[in-house]
Amino acid sequence: MNPPTLHAHHITDIQTSSQAASALKPIAGEFAFLLFSLGIIGTGLLALPVLAGSAAYAMAGTFRWKNSLALEPQLAKRFYGIIVLATLVGLALDFTSIDPIRALFWSAVINGVTSVPIMVLMMLMASNQKVMGTFVTPVPLRVLGWLSTGVMAAAVIAMFVFI
Fold this sequence. Notes:
- The protein folds into two domains: 1-96, no CATH class; 99-163.
- It is built from seven helices and no strands.
- It has helices at residues 17-23, 25-28, 32-63, 77-93, 100-127, 129-132, 139-162.
- The radius of gyration is 21 Å and the shape is flat.
- The mean pLDDT is 88.
- Its main location: membrane.
- Keywords: Membrane, Transmembrane, Transmembrane helix.
């Protein structure tokens, strides 16, 4: 017996959160909306602290602020301020008319497109002895890294070709 899937039930075009929850009905039955809600809440509870923390570390690293979750808030005010600000911005998005399904789609597209130049820079830095010193990436890892970068670039090019 094949497991039930959305595509098998001809559910292939989901545009809203409500449609996504309804799409789970063939699999989850009357618990579809509860399952979807718990999934979204769980994802948010996992993602929001990670995104807020990474934004704070990025900002603190860029501006050379004190940064560590091990520090007391009064010792790293700007670092913790970014965490609070990023959390509030994430929370505020819930009260806008932004469609969460569309936002997820476009954030994935942006992440995919921007990952290619980041991967190229990382590979160039990891291969450069002036940057890495004795920690230069070994040849097998460089080959895999460049292969991964090429696959990602091909995926981005294919996306733009077939849009």
